[in-house]
Write a structure and sequence with these properties.
Length: 408
């Protein structure tokens, strides 16, 4: 029965990848205009002021976007790492889960933008505006945010490790549950009685003084509410389905002409496989580069040596799976179940494992450089890259949880 099971799975995946092959995750015409000329793009925005442009998952790595009008643009999961966005207008843009690492955002305006779970690691944002922006669970490690305006911004559960907030405006900002605020440079930063600290308490003059920050007395203000982010459906560009979760298609990139196809080495690059059932499947060396595998059932699957570079595996079940030597660079594994999985010698460089279950997981010789383990769960049966068993103190250093399991 086992070969038949795998045959059915392969047939299912083949059908999934052949359906709606012309579907794009972004408006290709709009993306082409933006890449060709900022002047032409801005002129188009002036001519069509009411239109919401869809650049969901667009490839804009290292792009030169200085002065671009990207206000109210849908940029969900967009790749903007290394891009130049100096003085760009990103007001009310939807940048949910966007990759904006080591980007230049000097003097840019992101007021009211949605940056939930966006990755801004190492970006330069001196003098930028994030007034009223939603940065919940965003990654702001090592950002240079001197004189940046975060007033009334939502930074709840954001990662702030060694961020430079010198002279930043944090009046009325919500920092509830923010990670590593103690490691942030707050010299000359402004806090107020409306600023919420990680503990849930309001900032005080004494707290500000202890952190070399300034304290401002403001009138009491009601908690800020954040408008729901713009969706791609608001644009004039129609997709094959209303939402990402409803699509079962391949999503070609502008720089890739070949369609994914099943051949000797299974290729599901950019495939949309939400909730796909692949438990126990033999997928060794398969290519899942940038594939959407949200909530996929992969328990017990053989993914040895698989390419999951930047794959989206949020909430996926990978328990007891074999991911040894797998490439998981920048993969999203938030809330995934990796209990008792084998990740020996896997590359988890800059992977997002927030809230993931890593109880009993084998991480021996795995590369976990810059991986995010916030609120992930380790146990005494988890094997660390060193080959030693995980401990409570090790988990605490990673911002993770720990569970002691008694030996039977």
């Amino acid at each position: 029965m086992k070969p038949i099971k795998h045959k059915v799975i392969t047939l299912f995946l083949g059908l999934a990848l052949s359906t709606c092959q012309t579907a794009f995750a972004y408006d290709p015409e709009a993306l082409s205009t933006l890449k060709k000329s900022i002047s032409e793009w801005n002129s188009m925005r002036v001519a069509r002021p009411e239109e919401t442009f869809d650049l969901e998952e667009a490839e804009l790595e290292d792009a030169s976007l200085t002065g671009a009008n990207l206000s109210k643009t849908v940029l969900i999961n967009a790749e903007l790492s290394g891009s130049t966005l100096d003085r760009a207008d990103l007001k009310e843009a939807n940048l949910t889960m966007a990759l904006i690492k080591k980007a230049n955002l000097k003097m840019s305006d992101l007021s009211g933008a949605c940056l939930v779970k966006a990755n801004l690691n190492g970006s330069f944002m001196k003098g930028a505006k994030f007034t009223g922006a939603n940065l919940q669970e965003a990654n702001l490690r090592w950002v240079m945010a001197e004189n940046t305006d975060f007033s009334r911004a939502n930074l709840a559960n954001a990662t702030l490790f060694e961020a430079n907030f010198t002279g930043a405006n944090l009046c009325g900002a919500n920092l509830l549950g923010a990670h590593f605020l103690q490691q942030v440079n707050l010299d000359g930063a402004k806090l107020s009685n409306n600023t919420i600290l990680p503990s849930g308490e309001k900032a005080t003059s004494q707290w500000s003084t202890l952190h070399n920050a300034q304290f401002v007395n403001e009138g009491e203000s009601a908690p800020i509410t954040y408008a729901p982010p713009l969706s791609a459906g608001a644009s004039g560009h129609e997709k094959s389905s209303a939402t990402l979760n409803e699509r079962v298609s391949e999503k070609p990139r502008s720089d890739r002409k070949k369609q994914s196809r099943i051949s000797g080495k299974s290729n599901f690059e950019n495939g949309s496989l939400n909730n796909a059932v692949m438990a126990g499947a033999d997928l060794h060396n398969a290519n899942f580069h940038r594939a959407d595998l949200k909530l996929a059932h992969l328990q017990g699957a053989n993914l040895q040596g698989a390419n999951l570079d930047r794959a989206f595996l949020k909430g996926a079940d990978l328990s007891k799976s074999n991911l040894s030597n797998a490439l998981l660079y920048r993969a999203t594994l938030a809330d995934a179940n990796l209990s008792n999985a084998n990740l020996e010698k896997a590359s988890l460089f800059e992977a997002d494992l927030e809230g993931a279950n890593l109880e009993g997981t084998n991480l021996k010789d795995a590369n976990i450089t810059d991986a995010n383990f916030n609120n992930a769960t380790f146990s005494s049966r988890t094997t660390l890259p060193s080959g030693k068993q995980a401990t409570s103190s090790w988990a605490t250093l990673k911002g993770a949880k720990f569970r002691e399991i008694k030996q039977e």
